[in-house]
Amino acid sequence: MQTTLDVLKKDLSSIRTGRASPAMVENVRVEYGEATMPINHIAGISTSGVNLLIIQPWDPGSLKAIEKAILKSNLGLTPNNDGICIRLTIPPLSNERRQELIKIVKARVEEGKIAIRNLRRDASEELKKLEKDKEISQDDQRRAQDKVEKITDSFITLADKVREDKEEELLEV
After folding, report:
1. Domain housing 162
2. Which residues in 58-167 belong to E strands, given as ranges?
3. Which of 7, 106, 116, 156 is the most buried (most CB within 10 A)?
């Protein structure tokens, strides 16, 4: 469940707010050579100021592939290729775009919560199997089931907190 929450946090960090962050483009996959790889494997990503990302490829031949991958991604950013590096200016978010991003955040958090609930179901099935095989008593099974339920509830609450924090960040002007 902790891993699921960590993946959710990493996923939400790629959703852009009004500020430039290297995490915004880290998940962009670039087709370069005969492989598809994350952008941070073939280039350095840094920020300059609040609204500018600079992508410096280690191989200048990969500039076009990086530019194409950014255009294909759903980031809504236009790359500026100067032949040495790519500059991404992060425009301020419109209210309409903020609301769209909040919907995306809610959907991804809900997917994370479903994954957490699936883990709860798997644990419950395992406990029932252990009881059926007489490896644990019925009382132990109930106690463990209650503990699994409490742990699940705490992770669902943490996922909601992550959603609230991201929404607050998106609404910040």
Report:
1. 95-171
2. 79-81, 86-89
3. 116
Same domain, yes or no: 79 and 108: no
Nearest one of 22, 1, 11 to 154, comparing CA atoms: 1
Q: How many domains does the chain have?
A: 2
Q: Residue 89 corresponds to which amino acid?
A: T
In the chain, the DSSP E strands lie at 29-32, 35-38, 43-47, 52-57, 79-81, 86-89
DSSP 39: G
What values do phi and psi take at 97, rounded to 5?
A: -65, -35
Structure tokens at 76: 């809504």
| Alpha-carbon distances, residue 13 vs 33, 108, 120 (angstroms) | 28, 12, 26
Q: Is pTM, for the whole model, over 0.70?
A: no
**Residues contacting 136, CB < 8 A, separation 6+:** 127, 130, 144
Q: What is the CATH number of the domain that holds 57?
A: 3.30.1360.40
112 and 147 belong to one structural domain: yes
Q: Which residue has the tokens 């990493």?
A: 10
